[in-house]
Amino acid sequence: MPVAGIDVGSLTAEVVLLERGEVMHYVIMPTGANSKTAAEKAIDTALEAVDLKRSALEFVVATGYGRISIDFADKRITEITCHGRGAFFLNPAVRTVIDIGGQDSKVIRLSEKGKVLDFAMNDKCAAGTGRFLEVMAQALEVELAGLADLSRQAKSTVSISSMCTVFAESEVVSLIARGLPREDIARGLHQSIADRTAGMVHRIGLEEALMITGGVAKNAAVVEALNEKLKTDIIVPEEPQIAGALGAALLAEEELRQ
Ligand SMILES: Nc1ncnc2c1ncn2[C@@H]1O[C@H](COP(=O)(O)OP(=O)(O)OP(=O)(O)O)[C@@H](O)[C@H]1O
Ligand SMILES: [Mg+2]
């Protein structure tokens, strides 16, 4: 029988439906203001696509910051465990996972069996997360998906000195007003995310292979800046945003085997 993993994050909710280790279907939807409603909508949308009802699911594991409010879940498991599990399934060579989501970022160290050995997390402020990039894209008047391309046109880097999203936003606004090239500012913003993330990687020790998950993995400029800083070649999965939900679904299958 199929199982489901659901990851309700600050910005997006993902569902992965799994049957005997194979992904049947997945969805990515905005969380919006209510994580309980978002979770219900996401699971029902996923099930509808494969013509199943909730009663067909044998086990549901929930993760993400909104996991507490998911009452149809059989078990709740932390994001660290789920992201680690998902990344290791996608590539068993992975020993270090970087997850950058909407409101937090984390680095997870895995054993050769895929167990979590250590982790570092920044959930205190938006700097270094997807939310930071969204605010900055707005200040630069560019679509979020176009931010990476903008920074690739840079001829030099304008470094951003503010450590906080709110201050960095006013810094960016005044840099634009002073006539500095928007592309150079964009590169500086990506560098600042990479600096913060690399700091966390060094705190727990860099061990290859590295994989990046979460929505920010879709920003090629962040990945390039990290590769340069860490002198590595980070693996970007085909759909980096579903790693947590995939891990949750794999752990749901494991529960049934116990
Ligand atoms: N196509 C894209 N191009 C660039 N960036 C993207 C793209 N899609 C998503 N993102 C980034 O991903 C972020 C959201 O990531 P994700 O969906 O992993 O967050 P989340 O899991 O809801 O948050 P958290 O785990 O912090 O609670 C957005 O803030 C945005 O910066
Ligand atoms: Mg997340």
Can you lay out the helices and strands and say which pair or pack?
Layout: E1 3-8, E2 12-19, E3 22-30, H1 35-49, E4 60-63, E5 75-76, H2 79-90, E6 96-100, E7 105-110, E8 116-122, H3 130-139, H4 147-152, H5 165-177, H6 182-204, E9 210-213, H7 220-230, H8 243-257
Parallel strand pairs: 1-4, 4-5, 6-9
Antiparallel strand pairs: 1-2, 2-3, 6-7, 7-8
Helix pairs in contact: 2-8, 3-5, 6-7
The site of magnesium ion (MG) has 5 residues, from loops.
Write a short abstract of this structure.
It is built from eight helices and nine strands. With 258 residues, it is of the alpha/beta class. The longest helix has 23 residues, at 182-204.
Please tell me about this protein's structure.
There is one protein chain. The protein has 258 residues and is of the alpha/beta class. It has helices at residues 35-49, 79-90, 130-139, 147-152, 165-177, 182-204, 220-230, 243-257, and strands at 3-8, 12-19, 22-30, 60-63, 75-76, 96-100, 105-110, 116-122, 210-213. Strand 2 and strand 3 form a beta hairpin. The radius of gyration is 19 Å and the shape is globular. Adenosine-5'-triphosphate binds at residues 9-12, 64-65, 101-104, 130-131, 133-134, 144-145, 214-216, 218-219, 241.
